[in-house]
Here is the input.
Amino acid sequence: MATRKSSLTLALNLAVLAAFAWAVQHYWGWGRLLAPWGALPAATLALATAGLLASYGVRALRIYLAERDIPRGRLGACLRLILLNNALNLLLPARSGEASFPILMSRWFGIDAARATGTLIWLRLLDLHVLATVGAACAAAGWLGSSQPLSRLAWVAAGAAAIAPPLLFVLREPLRARLAGHGGRLATLAARVLGGLPLRPAGLALDLSLSWLSWGIKLTALGWVLARLADIPQSLGTLGAIGGDLSTVLPIHAPGGFGTYEAGALALLAPGAAPSGALLVAVVNLHLLVLTTALLAGAGAWLAGAVRKPADAKIAGYSSRNPPT
Here is the structure.
């Protein structure tokens, strides 16, 4: 049954990829679509790619420091986990790739899957906090238009996003106490999920700082590239990057994010940049940059694990044949 489900998922991903490739060729042609990269300096592309990879490194550090039971010295394994989880989220529909996070946390570090799920929920809330706060603050500042109702709504959304992680941190212990009083399997599971949150204010501050640093690097890099591909201001380029990434944080994106990434980016760009074929081409190219970088990094992480396993087995075999004296 599991094999059949995996086969169907793979078939769906390949079908979506084939449909996307056909649509690009039919409406633009791949040569025309990729032409803007020829006008972009190689150094710009290299710096943007380096920014994406650096943001993954900060995310790995965030997990390494946020999860107390990860053995010290395993930062590299945390980076591999991030890269694999990121690639699977892009390949699988409706955030189903997130299941890899608790599975790998349990398999590699021996951490309870329910608690690892709590850590994942907490980290995703921090991601949403950053994206929503930046996006809403930009709207409130007038970068998405001068509509006063939109501005007021944006400030409310920015405030709600800003206080969500600290509020959950404050309410964690009362929630755990209430759940403990109820008993039952579901309450016990929920209490273990809440165990993934930081224990002290210093942990909360560190998680927030690393989240803002990671997203700051990524959004600056992507906004910079989009601004140059579409010939728009840096502020609008950053908004487009936020819109695309919001579509991947929320459980609504298609396999690979094809279509939904572009829709999210254009939705935030629409009030400040007139829709056009050139703008859509720029957004699609930005998506291809994100996708290619993530998938190549994920493939590298998988290959690194495949190479390491035989080496570890060889070392273990040598140690068993030559016990310490």
Remarks:
- Residues 311-325 have pLDDT under 50 and may be disordered.
- The CA atoms of residues 145 and 271 lie 6 Å apart.
- The longest helix spans residues 277-321.
- The chain has twelve helices and no strands.
